[in-house]
Amino acid sequence: MIIAIAGLKGGAGKSTTAISMACELAARGRSVLLVDADPQGTASTWAAVATEAGRTVPTTIAMGETMHRDGQLAKVAAPFDHVVIDTPPRFDKIQRSALVVSDVVVLPCGPSAADAWALASTVELIEEAKIVRPKLKAAILLTRVQQGTTLGKGARDVVTEGGLPVLAATMGYRVAFQEALAAGLGPTTYAPTSDAAREVREVVDELLAFARGGAKLRAIGGGRA
Hints:
- The chain is α/β, with parallel strands linked by helices.
- The protein is built from 11 helices and 9 strands.
- The protein has one domain (2-219): P-loop containing nucleotide triphosphate hydrolases (Rossmann fold).
- α1 crosses α11 and α4 crosses α6 (119-132).
- The two termini are 20 Å apart.
């Protein structure tokens, strides 16, 4: 299964989400390929830090706007159980390339109104990709949610347009995410009993069920998806 972590707005935690999910999938005994499609190279830098520290991490490679072409990602991904693609903000050509080769796309979205408004352009890219890949599934993941705050309590109410389902699981604004990446680990291996680790496991569980058709998520604007 190929999972793209997408979104044209920066600051939503795409790289953190991609690395955290890739590490958790690997911890479950799956062979995982992490594709760094972001020119900033966050995933590649993380993998280099991990390797220097002697960590065992998912295979990590860099690809760009040609990954959808014959002999590119499909060829490299063949031996792996899962592929997670970290896409960059603003680079719509790279995101298009990732979307047309993916089975599922996850859109990390912060809890503010500005974050929700920024989803519109990404949703348009997804609709374009579905012309080529009709079975592409997409879901929104609320990130940087601060429990106990007004924004945290109303995060789901903020995401009110776009027609995409929303994962029940969320990823909070937690120091453990940053500390894990700096250590060359994922949250579930850096601090297995932390809230950050629990959230990553819940996201992965729900996303896998959704991708395989075993879960129905609440759609934006009401209803089911």
